[in-house]
Amino acid sequence: MIFVVAFALTEIGREVYRPYIYENGINDFGAADTVGNFFGTITQVYFMLFLLNPTYKNGLWFFPFFVVGYSIYEIAQLFMEGGYFDWKDIIATVLAGGLALFLYQQIFRRRVDE
User: Fold this and answer.
1) Best CA proximity match to 69, nearest among 94, 102, 101
2) Are 44 and 99 in contact (CB under 8 A)?
3) For residue 42, what are the CA distances in angstroms to 21, 49, 62, 104?
4) How confident is the model at residue 111 (pLDDT cuts 50, 70, 90)?
5) Which residues constitute the domain of residue 46?
6) How far is residue 1's CA from residue 9's CA, in Å, rounded to a whole number?
7) CA distance 26 to 102
8) What CA–CA distance (Å, rounded) separates 76 from 107?
9) Whole-model pTM?
């Protein structure tokens, strides 16, 4: 469910929210610029958790893997032709990874308590 919601928010953010913000000159403190990285990170983590269905402990490795991987990719864009580096994307990725991990821990706490 988290994967589906995060994917929907990613697409709504990129296709509806971002154009609206840009067209109307609204200062949203960079949220429109980073919406893809933020919700995309959550989408990717939970999609892989869904596909691979790891144990709780093994699933914990997905969070740093994707956060570090996306951050390295963002930095690599400095050296790529046509690449666009944005430090706000790295911050959004780290925050999204933290939120995704928090949700993961809460889900497993609930499952253990039931």
Assistant:
1) 94
2) no
3) 22, 11, 11, 11
4) low
5) 2-113
6) 12
7) 31
8) 34
9) 0.86
